[in-house]
């Protein structure tokens, strides 16, 4: 299982929706993935969108067509969608925008949602009013009734908004013929693969600090982005997860609202964003940037139990004279023992930094740990020692081979 340790957005397979995304570079071609698992770039890889994911089907087909135009062939022949996954309707997306507008009017700020309908869809799921992909395979009149029930609930919340259940049903009918061949019992597929000892890589969407239970609530997403989401989002027994890889960006970024203590409101933060091309793949919003926060990484490890770490984008730090790493939070002069659950407390903490010397030399061509500058090695070892988890990979560029592999 591959889990982001911070607040960034990655691919999916077990939870989330097209509210997040990432770019995969293969032979200088940039593929943007939001709903498609990144394994889709391999022609021999079967890709599963699990039951924990919520899917806006028109957006999925747009994503398929966009990447097919870049030369990615046979996507739909290698993709399956869980019959237990929930459908994001256009009405859910409208409701997402309505909720954000209400929050802004009431409190003067938004959560920073992407307005992709993810939260409202999970709300419908928990209220037992949601549409599952299995419903699209069933009786047409029964589906029409479920759509009417779902839209009726949304209209109860927003009675002055013009949302028509017949229009939503009509939209569903337009894409059902194309999506039907993709709908499968993925719990059976996954467990048959486990029985064959197939290699399975699970990528979780969003990141640990956006987890609805463990993240910076209420500035979080609507699902469990931590490793437990692998089990509930795919139907994989926890005893079958043999490796949990934590992805650590060499600095910290975040899109949307919510505090992160190491955020830099200065030219250094601007420089990190410029060099790192820190713009959200889904919304195009500029990401907020700051120094690496090991309090967050250690807390994420407590929850996920990482077996190995993969550091990404260390090359973005190549030109800095010095680099800082946060190793603690102080509140009113007292060092906290753990990441706080109360966002009001998080707003008041001050980061405690250590300062390391920068390496001031390109790392792009490094492929072995010995190739890295001594100062970059110190940076990696500082992360390992503080978190207590071995670093196995260090990303030094965008291309797939721009990676230091540590034996």
Explain what this protein looks like in three dimensions.
The protein is of the alpha/beta class. It is built from twelve helices and 18 strands. The strands form six sheets. A five-stranded mixed β-sheet has the order 1-9-13-17-18, with helices on one face. A hairpin with a 2-residue loop joins strand 2 and strand 3. The radius of gyration is 22 Å and the shape is globular. The model has no long low-confidence stretch (mean pLDDT 92).
The helix fraction, in percent, is 25-40%
Number of helices: 12
* Alpha-carbon Rg, integer: 22 Å
Strand order across the biggest sheet? 1-9-13-17-18
Shape: globular
Secondary-structure-derived class: alpha/beta
User: Quick check: average pLDDT?
Assistant: 92
> Which residue ranges are poorly predicted, with pLDDT under 50 across at least 5 consecutive positions?
none
């Amino acid at each position: 299982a591959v889990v982001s340790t911070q607040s960034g957005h990655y691919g999916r397979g077990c939870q989330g929706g097209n509210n997040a995304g990432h770019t995969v570079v293969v032979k200088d071609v940039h593929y943007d993935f939001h709903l498609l698992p990144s394994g889709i770039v391999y022609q021999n890889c079967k890709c599963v969108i699990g039951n924990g994911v919520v899917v806006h089907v028109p957006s999925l087909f747009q994503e398929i067509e966009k990447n097919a135009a870049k030369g990615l062939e046979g996507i739909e022949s290698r993709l399956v969608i869980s019959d237990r996954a929930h459908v994001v309707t256009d009405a859910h997306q409208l409701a997402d925008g309505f909720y954000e507008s209400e929050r802004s009017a009431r409190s003067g700020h938004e959560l920073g949602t992407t307005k992709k309908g993810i939260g409202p869809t999970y709300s419908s799921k928990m209220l037992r009013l949601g549409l599952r992909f299995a419903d699209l395979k069933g009786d047409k009149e029964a589906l029409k009734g479920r759509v009417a029930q779902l839209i009726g609930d949304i209209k109860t919340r927003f009675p002055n908004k013009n949302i028509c259940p017949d229009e939503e049903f009509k939209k569903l009918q337009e894409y059902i013929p194309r999506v039907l061949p993709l709908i499968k019992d993925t719990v059976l597929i996954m467990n048959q693969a486990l029985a064959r000892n197939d290699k399975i890589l699970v990528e979780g969407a969003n990141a640990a600090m956006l987890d609805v239970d463990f993240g910076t609530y209420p500035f979080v997403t609507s699902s469990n982005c931590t490793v437990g989401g692998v089990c509930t989002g795919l139907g994989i027994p926890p005893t079958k997860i043999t490796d949990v890889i934590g992805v650590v960006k060499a600095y910290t970024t975040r899109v949307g609202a919510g505090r992160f203590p190491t955020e830099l409101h200065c030219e250094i933060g601007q420089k990190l964003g410029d060099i790192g091309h820190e713009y959200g793949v889904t919304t195009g919003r500029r990401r907020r940037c700051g120094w690496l926060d090991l309090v967050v990484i250690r807390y994420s490890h407590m929850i996920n139990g990482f077996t190995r770490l993969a550091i990404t984008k260390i090359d973005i730090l190549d030109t800095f004279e010095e680099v800082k790493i946060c190793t603690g939070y102080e509140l009113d002069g007292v060092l906290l023992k753990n990441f706080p659950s109360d966002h009001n407390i998080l707003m008041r903490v001050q980061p405690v930094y250590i300062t390391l010397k920068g390496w001031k030399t390109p790392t792009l061509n490094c492929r072995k740990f010995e190739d890295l500058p001594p100062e970059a090695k110190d940076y990696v070892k500082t992360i390992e020692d503080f978190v207590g988890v071995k670093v196995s990979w260090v990303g030094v560029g965008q291309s797939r081979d721009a990676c230091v592999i540590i034996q």
